[in-house]
Automatic annotation (TrEMBL):
<keyword id="KW-0833">Ubl conjugation pathway</keyword>
<dbReference type="InterPro" id="IPR016024">
    <property type="entry name" value="ARM-type_fold"/>
</dbReference>
<dbReference type="InterPro" id="IPR000225">
    <property type="entry name" value="Armadillo"/>
</dbReference>
<dbReference type="InterPro" id="IPR058678">
    <property type="entry name" value="ARM_PUB"/>
</dbReference>
<feature type="domain" description="PUB 12/19-like N-terminal">
    <location>
        <begin position="2"/>
        <end position="107"/>
    </location>
</feature>
<dbReference type="Pfam" id="PF25368">
    <property type="entry name" value="PUB10_N"/>
</dbReference>
<keyword id="KW-0677">Repeat</keyword>
<protein>
    <submittedName>
        <fullName>Plant U-box 13</fullName>
    </submittedName>
</protein>
<dbReference type="InterPro" id="IPR011989">
    <property type="entry name" value="ARM-like"/>
</dbReference>
<feature type="domain" description="U-box">
    <location>
        <begin position="307"/>
        <end position="577"/>
    </location>
</feature>
<dbReference type="Pfam" id="PF25598">
    <property type="entry name" value="ARM_PUB"/>
</dbReference>
<dbReference type="InterPro" id="IPR057623">
    <property type="entry name" value="PUB12-19-like_N"/>
</dbReference>
<feature type="repeat" description="ARM">
    <location>
        <begin position="336"/>
        <end position="378"/>
    </location>
</feature>
Length: 601
């Protein structure tokens, strides 16, 4: 194929160099050739894509068919090309005719070695499906053929397969989902078992519950089209993109949804409900399920009986696997990985501690994981890391685990009753990064759902720190979460008094007047209403002096959420009543002196 394309290149260059005029039919043929060559280029790029070796191997028949169809398309375009009307040399014309003839007769067959390797993979997948552990040497033959020689290359294959799965779910077809999931299970098994020894790569993951950290870098123009993509103004046709790095559609889609949610923009739901592979509670294929179950047992054994390096590597693999989907978490929990991970928290090695706590964070998102952590005495270990972790990162992750554990009603009481738990979270608000502060704030918020914890949160002097967050420059998410905690505390008399002991009132009004999220403005209205109800005229008189507040409340009535609108109306009523009462009192006071000066004879 490459030789034939090279011959056609000579033909095209001669037409270009001689600046020959072409008929409409010739232009149409060249357009068809251009489209076919584009598709061939895309196929070549897919076939040579780094990390897609296994995926391309298992799609060999499809790829071969696509190449065959494109070659036939080229043959058809050359057949109808009016060569006689194009003034090129006889030698070039004969070569083009030869290419057309060869393209018509071309037969593409799968390489026998590729076919053998593909059959080996299918056999391995069948063994996984039957929960039979494959022979490592047999798997090694496949990996050697694909030149997957280390942990990093294996991990890269998994990432490419995950991207393919995301695209498959996004399209809604899911036709190839079972195969792709099986291949992910196969590669995950290889990564965890066969590449146990040797170096393994760094893994970037968002820590804790800060799942939308990227949003702080997005501006409103971040979702606009580049100038050259606009149809209303063509002045930017030749403008270059400042950054050519591509972002996966699935990632961009999640960011757009979160951006719209935070800014009160509603999105119409698609008729086709796309499947979220991360939320699947069963394996997408029997082979994938079998591979993950076998791998989970292997990792649990390593955590119990392995060397220190084996345990560290096992915790790291669990950290990766548990991030993928609910099914993986379930398998890892059932295999008994939670107790040894809790033991690993006592490690003096910072890497082991961060891998163990990160793995537990992922497992704590599963109901069985929460139960396993608490029933195995893990709460004490996690709180110990929260207070005295080897670095700030592990402390912040432990706060996120507290957040997930406190989603269970009974555990809120248990955590709140543990000495030092709430003060440790408050300390993290002081010292943590934006993500760590958020982890601590949302953990405190869930603990407040157990009412006896209110007093402990107030005693830990949480309120001044939250007000400082509102007065500082932090992310919208942290703003909103801090307001949520303050609004919950303000519901009680003690909480309202604690808030009034800080410069909270002007700060809250300032937030209400800013570009805060709709949820944030609702929390502001709720706080002000609670302060008025609990502390009376002292607060109302202060609010009445702010001339901008009434306009803000009216704006909230019309543009806010239903809850925010209701609270704003109540606040307006309170302020109106206060103004009327004060006016009445002023009138009465003005009348009394006049009566005293009446002369009585």
């Amino acid at each position: 194929m490459l030789r034939q394309i090279g011959i056609l290149l000579i033909f095209f260059e001669e037409i270009r160099d001689r600046k020959l005029s072409l008929s409409k039919s010739a232009v149409l043929c060249f357009s068809e050739l251009h489209l076919a060559f584009q598709k061939i280029l895309f196929l070549f790029e897919d076939c040579t894509r780094e990390g897609a070796r296994l995926c391309i191997l298992m799609k060999s028949h499809y790829v071969s068919t696509q190449f065959h169809l494109l070659i036939r398309t080229i043959a058809t375009a050359l057949d109808v090309l009016p060569l006689s009307s194009i003034e090129v040399s006889c030698e070039i014309r004969e070569l083009v005719e030869l290419v057309a003839k060869q393209a018509r007769k071309a037969k593409l067959e799968i390489d026998p070695d590729d076919d053998s390797a593909m059959k080996r993979v299918i056999l391995i997948l069948n063994q996984f499906e039957n929960k039979f552990e494959p022979d490592p040497s047999f798997i090694k033959r496949v990996l050697d053929y694909l030149e997957i020689n280390n942990w990093s290359e294996c991990h890269r294959e998994i990432r490419i397969l995950d991207e393919e799965i995301s695209l498959e779910c996004l399209d809604g077809s899911e036709r190839e989902l079972p195969l792709l999931s099986s291949l992910v299970g196969f590669m995950s098994y290889c990564r965890g078992v066969l590449f146990e020894a040797g170096p393994y790569g760094a893994f970037d993951q968002t820590v804790g519950v800060c799942d939308h950290k990227l949003l702080q870098f997005l501006e409103s123009r971040g979702f606009s089209l580049p100038d050259f993509a606009r149809t209303d103004d063509r002045s930017g046709d030749r403008e270059k993109l400042p950054n050519t790095e591509l972002v996966p559609n699935s990632t961009l889609r999640k960011l757009i949804h979160q951006f719209c949610a935070d800014n009160g923009v509603s999105l119409s739901k698609s008729r086709n409900t796309n499947r979220d592979i991360t939320r699947t509670i069963i394996a997408c294929s029997p082979a994938a399920g079998g591979a993950i179950e076998l791998l989970s047992d292997f990792l649990a054994n390593r955590l119990y009986n392995g060397t220190r390096e084996h345990k560290n590597k096992g915790a790291y693999e669990i950290r990766l696997l548990a991030k993928s989907n609910i099914f993986n978490r379930s398998c890892l929990i059932d295999a008994g990985t939670v107790p040894p991970l809790l033991n690993l928290l006592d490690s003096t090695d910072p890497t082991s501690q961060v891998n163990a706590i990160s793995a537990l964070l992922k497992l704590s998102k599963h109901d069985s994981g929460k139960k396993a952590i608490v029933e195995n005495g893990g709460l004490k270990s996690i709180l110990s890391v929260l207070k005295r972790g080897l670095n700030l990162e592990v402390r912040q992750i432990s706060a996120a685990i507290i957040f997930y554990l406190s989603s269970v009603h009974g555990y809120r009481k248990l955590i709140g009753a543990t000495p030092g738990a709430i003060p440790a979270l408050v300390e993290l608000i002081k010292e943590g990064t934006s993500c760590g502060k958020k982890n601590a704030v949302v953990a405190i918020f869930t603990l407040l759902l157990h009412h006896p914890n209110h007093q402990k949160v107030l005693e830990a002097r949480t309120v001044p720190l939250l007000v400082d967050i509102l007065a500082g420059s932090h992310t919208d998410e942290l703003f909103t979460d801090s307001l949520a905690v303050l609004s919950t505390l303000a519901d009680t008399m003690e909480g309202s008094i604690a808030i009034l002991q800080t410069p909270a009132l002007p700060v809250i009004i300032c937030v209400l007047n800013s570009s805060a999220t709709r949820a944030g403005k609702e929390y502001c209205a709720r706080i002000l209403l609670s302060l008025c109800n609990n502390c009376g005229d002292e607060v109302v008189s202060s609010l009445a002096k702010d001339t901008s507040l009434m306009n803000l409340l009216y704006s909230l009535v019309t543009d806010g959420t239903s809850h925010a609108s209701k609270k704003a109306r109540l606040l307006i009523k309170i302020l109106h009543n206060f103004q009327e009462t004060r006016s009445s009192q002023l009138t009465t006071r003005a009348a009394v002196p006049q009566e005293r000066f009446i002369h009585v004879t």
